[in-house]
Design a protein that fits this description.
Elements (H helix, E strand, L loop, with lengths): L5 E5 L5 E5 L42 E3 L3 E9 L2 E14 L2 H4 L7 H4 L2 E11 L13 E4 L4 E2 L3 E2 L20 E10 L5 E6 L8 E4 L2 E3 L16
Parallel strand pairs: 3-12, 5-13
Antiparallel strand pairs: 1-2, 1-9, 4-5, 5-6, 6-10, 7-8, 7-11, 11-12
Length: 225
């Protein structure tokens, strides 16, 4: 018998509840996080598009292609000041049939389109950032932000979205985020927007169809019994 998975959703106000995989995508609370229902501009000036030198901060409003890096300052909570070098590597299209076998899905969830975002992140500052969620939002074809889903149990096709403990200065990690886009919309990019007034840094590029890892030495692409 396959296990039924569950998802933890949280609003930006910090209310957290456990549920079966539901229709609203969610994430752990983030200080000054923008609201997912707001629109996020994907445009950027020509001057902001150039890759910065190593260690230099990327200008707000910069436009990145997949595989390019942005270096940003990030404060996940008061008193915790970090710096990250973020590279969004891939946007993957998938389906519930392909990657959510064994998970309870309601009608609201099925009305959304699932995507995976894979990124490489380096702690480029002086503060341990262990345990915090990767500060990235999906961007749909209507210009709306989409929060990454959070799971109570391991989701093998796309895990993890949180930094390991510890995540010390100089350490790097590969993360994966599940984006459930409303109204069967299309994921067109990824946004770093730590607070509402911040001019977002965005990554855009072509979607890649999800391919399950090969059996040899690779984990299964769906929950096991």
């Amino acid at each position: 018998m396959q296990r039924a998975g569950s998802l933890r959703a949280a609003s930006v106000m910090g209310a957290v509840m456990a549920m079966s995989l539901m229709g609203c995508s969610g994430t752990a609370p983030r200080t000054n996080a923008p609201r997912a229902s707001e629109s996020a501009s994907a445009s950027a000036s020509t001057s902001a598009s150039a890759q910065p030198s190593a260690g230099a901060l990327t200008e707000p409003g910069a436009d990145r292609r997949l595989g390019e890096t942005a270096t940003v300052e990030w404060t996940p909570k008061e008193g915790v000041d970090g710096k990250l070098a973020i590279t969004v590597d891939k946007l993957e299209s998938t389906s519930y049939k392909q990657t959510f076998s064994g998970w309870k899905l309601d009608e609201a969830t099925l009305a959304r389109a699932p995507y995976f975002v894979r990124a490489s992140i380096k702690n480029d500052g002086k503060t341990d950032l262990g345990g915090y969620d990767a500060p990235l939002w999906g961007l749909d074809d209507e210009g709306n932000l989409v929060e990454a889903a959070a799971f109570k149990e391991s989701f093998k096709p796309c895990a993890p979205k949180a930094f390991p403990k510890p995540f010390a200065p100089g350490a790097s990690v590969d993360v994966c985020l599940v984006m459930l886009v409303p109204d069967q919309g299309k994921l067109v990019g990824v946004s770093f927007r730590p607070y509402e007034e911040f001019d977002p840094i965005t990554w855009q590029g072509d979607l890649t169809p999800y391919a399950a890892p090969k059996a040899s030495g690779s984990p299964s692409a769906s929950p096991t019994s």
